Amino acid sequence: MQQKRNKCAFSAKKFWKFKVFIVTLHLDLDKITILLIYMRYYKMIAAALIGSSTLTSCFKDEPLNAECDIEQAYIHVDNPLGMFYQQSDTLINVLSTAEDINFVVRKTTDLTALAPIFNLTPGATIFPDNGSEQDFSNGPIVYTTTSEDGQYKRNYRVNFIFSKDMLEYNFDHFSLNTNAPANKYYVWTDLDDEGNPLNNWATGNPGYRMAKSSAKPENYPTTPDSEEGHETCVKLTTRDTGAFGMFGSRKMPIAAGNLFLGEFDVNEALKPNAAGDYGILATKFGLPISSQPVSFSGFYKYKRGDVFTDKNKVEVKDAKDYGSIYAVLYDNHDANGEPFVLHGDDVLTSDQIISIANIGQIDDTPEWTAFNLNFQLQPGKAIDPVKLANRGYSLAIVSSSSINGATFEGAVGSTLWIDSFSIKCAEAK
Fold first, then answer.
1. How many Cβ atoms sit within 10 Å of the Cβ of residue 149?
2. Is the omega angle on the peptide bond into residue 80 within 30 degrees of 0, that is, cis?
3. Fold entry, domain 164-425
């Protein structure tokens, strides 16, 4: 009983902390919901908001968990490197916004009897059964998770796909998000040879959702657009994050429109990095590649915003915003053999970088303009063909409406349009 009372007292303490937090922010219910989803306090706050006039229920059993996420997916095989390119490929950390879980395997892999294992949020269940053998030779299998309280379900498409470098990007395949809360912002994907989504592209749209929960999809930083000669281009626009972006120690007054190969981890969006900068760790740039990129081409146009501000939301006189487009090849394992990924603070400076194709500062460019950039090897760097063949390098492609958007400096209204990216690779020897 004492243990239960202590647990309950802790919950009550956290409730009052959040009550003050919510009142201070003056947030509407929709914004509160997003914050709570991010901070994973579903059960505590749901009960508190409904019955905040009394805490007598605190001495009863806490409500059953309402979460039903797959947090990790992995597979055990006797010879991992006979099936996967890297030992680390056997485990996938699943983002809270994910809808697809794709294991990339060698082309010799038998897909008829594979048994993926899933780590779920506490109390959640999954169907088909966790660790049961399934035939993936005909494409993805839909797994359905159910929360402990039985009120919520999520569907995940789990697939095992043979590695193939995607080198042509026309941005034709986009849709509104389907993960809860659904239909809030646009997402982009590539398709494999069977038409299955690969979800190679990410944006900061899920993070902007926390700041502007009532925004319409077309008012998010990254949206689809259509122009003569470019019917399915992407429009990147720097947006104001309002009071949310400047609350407390956070200094995130803007959200630059961006589109990049990789992942956006919304769970990291409100965490500082080692230097105390927020939002940097949310962007995880790059995807493994087994071909050596030699050039990067595409189309763009750009219109900068009028007023440039720093991360404290203070206008910087005579400063100008610029757009950015670049591609980076980097070693995706560190010196200790641990998986490595680039973030917003080191995507152009890390010692792991092998080569870069960077357009530099994009100034006002009212007409669609073609670019073709060669990858430049960094000093002292070379391509290891064995490592390349085993997907030991990753390719990052990054576009932003504000060149310093990662540090939240730029001009609201700056807009970059992009279309038809292409990577040319060296022929295999």
1. 16
2. no
3. Jelly Rolls (2.60.120)
Task: Determine contact, residues 256/402, Cβ cutoff 8 Å.
Answer: yes
- Write the CB contacts of 265 (distance below 8 Å, at least 6 apart in sequence): 95, 281, 282, 284
Distance CA 262, CA 394 (A): 10
pLDDT at residue 213, as a whole number: 93
Looking only at the bridges linking them, the beta strands covering 258-264 and 393-400 are: antiparallel
- In order of 150, 178, 304, 368, the CA distances from 413 in angstroms are 44, 27, 7, 18
Contacts with 364 (C-beta within 8 Å, 6 or more apart), sequence order: 302, 303, 304
**Max alpha carbon distance in the chain (Å)?**
72
- Bridge-based pairing of strands 91-93 and 222-227 is unpaired
The pair of structure tokens assigned to 204 is: 């900061």
Would you give the end-to-end CA distance of the chain in angstroms?
Answer: 70
Q: How far is CA 141 from the centre of its chain?
A: 23
Alpha-carbon gap, residue 223 to 214, rounded angstroms: 16
- Say what percent of the chain tops pLDDT 90: 73
Q: Which of 20-29, 52-61, 193-202, 413-422 has the highest mean pLDDT?
A: 413-422
Q: Name the residue among 298, 257, 262, 355 with its Cα closest to residue 168.
A: 298
Residue 277, SS3?
Answer: coil
Q: Are 239 and 405 in contact (CB under 8 A)?
A: no
Distance CA 229, CA 213 (A): 33
Q: How confident is the model over 169-177, as a mean pLDDT?
A: 95
The torsion angle over the Cα atoms of residues 413, 284, 262 and 408, rounded to 10 degrees, is 0
* Each residue's pLDDT tens digit, 183-213: 999 999 998 888 888 889 999 999 999 999 9
- Can you give the pLDDT at residue 164? 82
Tally of helices (H runs) and strands (E runs) in the chain: 7, 27
Tallying the residues shown for the chain, one arrives at 429
Tell me the C-alpha distance between 327 and 97, whole Å: 25
Q: Which residues pair with 233 in a beta bridge?
A: 225
CATH class of 64-163: mainly beta
10 Å Cβ neighbour count for 175?
12
